[in-house]
Specification:
203 residues, mainly alpha, Cytochrome Bc1 Complex, Chain D, domain 2, elongated
């Protein structure tokens, strides 16, 4: 055992003491091919192909690596690298009604029908209760950020992309924005015809 250890030490010493110049020598012909590789320049000519062009036409349906797949605004809630502050399609009454239905089925279980975090499920969540969606900080989120939270989840909140399609998620976001505004709206914010109707219905 001692003899093997001494031999290893002597071998290591010898390798350290070798002349560094021995490590620099002309590469073998198999390696020199890697140093000088014949190639075609862009837009160059080639005698190999029948059309004489070195550059080949991309295969049909090829997608450039610089291309953006899908629609970032619709699919990801991102608009030019930031959370979108707009919707990918017009917000209509039909869209808001769809959003209300989906919100009450998927979201209200934890966040409450009004989005205020008051629900039977939330009352039993001792670790971390679902927040009210009516607070100023959450209400200030742009639509794209809310869409991302609904899509991928946040904290203990699971992702909802398996429950809701992209269009349904946008409908929920649209309804939530209306719901947030309705809970803090003043009578003076209503159009004149709605104010008059409200006064007629008042006791």
């Amino acid at each position: 055992m001692k003899r093997l250890l001494v031999t290893a030490i002597l071998g290591a010493s010898a390798s350290v003491g070798c002349d560094a110049k021995q490590n620099f020598h002309s590469p073998e012909w198999t390696l020199s091919r890697m140093l000088d590789q014949p190639r075609y320049e862009p837009y160059g000519q080639s005698a190999f192909f029948d059309d004489g062009r070195a550059m080949r036409k991309p295969v049909d349906s090829t997608i450039s690596r610089e291309a953006v797949l899908g629609t970032p605004l619709h699919d990801d809630g991102i608009d030019y690298g930031h959370y979108a502050d707009r919707f990918p399609f017009p917000v209509t009454l039909a869209l808001l009604e769809e959003g209300r239905l989906e919100f009450e089925i998927v979201c209200a279980t934890c966040h409450g029908v009004l989005g205020d975090g008051d629900s039977p499920v939330a009352a039993k969540m001792q670790l971390r209760k679902p927040p009210s969606l009516l607070t100023e900080d959450i209400a200030s989120f742009p639509p794209g950020r809310v869409y991302r939270v609904v899509t991928v989840g946040y904290g203990l909140m699971p992702a909802c992309d398996y429950q809701l399609t992209a269009d349904e998620r946008w409908a929920v976001v649209a309804y939530l924005k209306v719901l947030e505004r309705s809970q803090v709206a003043k009578v003076s914010d209503l159009p004149p015809d709605l104010r008059a109707e409200l006064q007629r219905q008042a006791p």
